Amino acid sequence: MMESTDKLTDTNAILAYLYETFPLCFIAEGETKPLKIGLFQDLAERLADDSKVSKTQLRVALRRYTSSWRYLKSVKAGAQRVDLDGQPCGELEQEHIDHAQAMLKESQEKAKAKRAAQAPKAAPAGKAPAKKAPKKVAVPARKTGRPVKAAPKIESAPTVNLVQAQLTDLAKKQRVNVKLGMTPVAGVITDINKEDIHVQLDSGLTVKVKAEHILL
């Protein structure tokens, strides 16, 4: 019987495949484990003969996994990075821990703001209920004439203004931000090969991008 060569294109399906293939590395439920730096190369080599997944889809799936709240929560002091077989690969650096916690906080604040924006219009939060008029008052209560204070607006977290980098601005070991999805991800340039820039992200993933995808 011929094996199916249909590629997995849905990110959730690829993650499910990784959970099943590497259960000691990729955790489907509950607390995860920080991944080895450079794990993508190991993953690409291990799945080189697997026709189900492409490198591009693997990058997308790995990016989603390492940006999830439960993964970011696992990047903490004392935690050990693991390889594809679940073997320890050293403790986390404080810089990576700080970056993960900052990403987690930012993501949670964005989710909170989005929920607030989608909530149905209701009475302003924190507004005290109107006081009942005393029962003994025989005449209509006079209006105070005081304006009703509006609920304070919730200010969004200040955004960091990043600018697109030029190739001439970049150098090895320089810290930069890479445009991956909606949120720039911090990392360090490990190599520059003509127009291809290799960046090791703080999550451990290494990506190859053009200068137009790098922010300073």
TrEMBL record:
Domain of life: Bacteria
Record carries keyword Oxidoreductase: no
Keywords noted in UniProt: Chaperone, Cytoplasm, RNA-binding
Low complexity: compositionally biased ranges: 116-128
Predominant cellular place of this UniProt entry's protein: cytoplasm
Ranges of residues in domain ProQ/FinO: 6-120
Keyword Mitochondrion: no
Pfam families: ProQ (PF04352), ProQ_C (PF17516)
SMART domains: ProQ
Region described as Disordered: 106-150
Subcellular location, record wording: Cytoplasm
SUPFAM superfamilies membership: FinO-like
Function of the molecule: RNA chaperone with significant RNA binding, RNA strand exchange and RNA duplexing activities.
Family, as annotated: Belongs to the ProQ family.
PANTHER family reported in the protein's UniProt record: RNA CHAPERONE PROQ
Protein known as: RNA chaperone ProQ
Species name: Shewanella decolorationis S12
